[in-house]
Amino acid sequence: MHAALGDGTSAIQHIDTQVDYLEKQDTKSVQIEQNKKAQQQELNRLKGFLNDAQKLAASKGAAINAIKGAQKLISEFDEANKALIGEVEQEKPIVEQNIDIRESYQQFVTLLNAYRKKLPALLVENLGDEVVKLYNAFNRNDAPTELLASIQLPLAQNQKLKISYQNEPQKYFDALHVLSEGHIRCVGLAILLAKNIKEDCPLLIFDDPVNAIDDDHRQSIRRTLFEDDYFDGKQIILTCHGEEFFKDIQNQLSVEQVKSSQRLAFLPRIDEPHIQVDFKCAPRNYIEGALEHFRKNELRFALGKSRQALESLTTGKVWQYVSKHGDGNLSIKLRAANAPIGLRQLTDQLKSKIKKGDFTDAEKHNVLSPIEQLLGINGDSLEWRYLNKGTHDEVDRAEFERNSVHTIVSALALLDQAL
After folding, report:
1. Cα within 13 Å of Cα(195), Cβ side
2. Inter-CA distances, 4 with 11, 17, 21, 239, Å
3. Exposure pattern of 360-399 as b/e (b: 16+ CB <10 Å)?
4. Which of 160, 134, 123 is nearest to 148 (CA)?
5. CA-to-CA distance for 99 and 113, rounded, in angstroms?
6. Cα separations (Å) of 389 from 307, 311, 342, 367, 385?
7. Which among 376, 253, 370 has a CA at the least distance from the CA of 317?
8. Which of 135, 126, 185 is nearest to 164 (CA)?
9. Contact, 411 vs 373, CB < 8 A?
């Protein structure tokens, strides 16, 4: 195999050359096979894309058909609702305006809520001292331990209303826990009145201000409104359901004040479809009533009102006046345990207190003079007997003496004016 051939090579060389060639061809075949596999995989991948593309094309066709159908429906809808669509177009400016209103309203509500949060502080700012004064005026007959030293008004949501008493000014309590309903109403009334004073309002309007407040506090509230100087110069408009409270107000005022006030009575509806208003109310002030009856020569009724006036003046205003300027302790004898106080005896006792030398009012003669006029009439007279016991109906009664009745009514008017 190694013998030289004619071409200068040997057979073994030719075999090696053929083996090399075959090996190279085998390598190329393997490479080609591998390339074929790779190409087959790429072909399979591309076929997958083709399938996807065919599916997408089918879906596209369906979608195009659906779009055409929808466009047809839209066209038909537009045609069928042409008028309605036109109305919608016309409403667009209104809708835009409403949107602006809504946004403005939302902004307004935001501002309003912010203001509401600040409102408690704005309403009660710097009112504490005035509230304490008014509350104590409403409760002037309470024990000193029940009068307020200070009050902490709530300035924000969920804050508590706190108070301290004069006997423990540094110790604060939750007002809603320690005060009765009537006292809580007094606090609320004091806050409203303090705000009126703080704002220097020329007008004070009250609708039944003493509802659910006991009689003792009603008297003090009347005195605060019409006797103290908190509301001097203010016009007061007051309504109430209570006949007695209205009557008491009328007698708290002087006759001149009553005459200068306007009184209206809303009458019950009896077979009437509308509210009836009485612009000429009967006098509730006893002295005004006595003067009116005397002017009409109704002496018996004038004495009846005079008795009520004298009882109201002596047990109320005169006794308070005496206690303020002198010794208010009286010594009165009663005929029996349940006997009423004789008005002449009470009047005489008050006169003796006023006449004392240590009485402090330099102008006491203005009060003393009408009292002496009253007592100058004989105590056994028919007029004084009726002042003492009332004008009960009797058969064959003697006539009243007009001059005596005139003296009584006039003296009561002067006494009311002096007080």
Report:
1. 13
2. 8, 15, 21, 151
3. eeeebeebbebbebbeebeeeebbbebbbeebeeeeeeee
4. 134
5. 21
6. 9, 11, 8, 24, 6
7. 253
8. 135
9. yes
Residue 146 CB partners (closer than 8 Å, separation 6+): 139, 165
For the record, the structure tokens of 90 come out as 């016309």
**Contact indicator for 149, 132 with CB cutoff of 8 Å:** yes
Q: Are 409 and 294 in contact (CB under 8 A)?
A: yes
Chain-centroid distance, C-alpha 179: 19
User: Average pLDDT for consecutive 10-residue bins of the chain (419 residues)?
Assistant: 83 88 90 89 90 91 92 89 88 93 96 86 83 92 89 84 92 92 89 91 86 76 87 89 83 86 84 82 87 90 89 87 88 68 84 89 90 85 75 64 89 90
Residue 315: both structure tokens together? 């047990």
Give helix then strand counts, H and E, for the chain: 15, 7
Q: Residue 334: CB partners within 8 Å, gap ≥ 6? A: 341
